[in-house]
Amino acid sequence: MRKMRSIYFLAILLCLGLSSCATMKDIVNPYDEEFHCRAKDTEGKCVDTPTAYQDARYPQPIAEPQSTADGKTPVAPVSPLKASKDEAKANQYRTISELLDKPETPMLNPPKILRVLILPYKGEKNELFMTRYAYLEIEKASWVLTDIKEK
Is 96 within the bounds of a domain? Predict the structure, then answer.
């Protein structure tokens, strides 16, 4: 009798679960997938997340430029990934050149720190030393771009 009650109870739960208004997709992802992109054309593309991931992970190769009938080679379009890398590199060079123009602004290279994991071990007097980390300074911090003149 008790076994029959549990079977009826499971059947009722199954019917309630299957007859609900929510689909499995709504349960797994409750957020609205429809979005309205307000980005301008100069600020990027409006795509869904899987497409953006695919574009970032596997950028489309650019076809080789082909000569036209008059023998001139048209300028090949630059991929957005290459353009952004070139822009980042240009910004980095600009920052370094600004630092070189202002020698009164010193920079400090951080020290190099090594983190060493020490596994648990038993001491000489049967003590137990547990897992821990030790941090060792391998290289000291050093100044770069200073006004100090070497003698």
Answer: no
Q: Which domain holds residue 133?
A: 110-151
Residue 141 forms part of a structural domain: yes
Could you say which DSSP state residue 98 is in?
H
145/151 Cα distance (integer angstroms):
16
Amino acid at 74: P
The answer to whether 102 and 113 are in contact (CB under 8 A) is: no
Q: What dihedral angle (degrees, nearest 10) is formed by the CA atoms of 100, 101, 103, 106?
A: -60
DSSP secondary structure string for all residues of 48-90: -HHHHHHHHHSPPPPPPP---TTSPPPPPPPPHHHHHHHHHHH
Q: Regarding predicted confidence, which is higher, 51 or 131? A: 131
Residue 128: inside a domain? yes
Residue 22 clears pLDDT 60, i.e. is over it = no
Whole-prediction pTM value? 0.28
Nearest CA-CA partner of 65 in 73, 55, 57: 73
Residue 133 in this model has a pLDDT that exceeds 90: yes
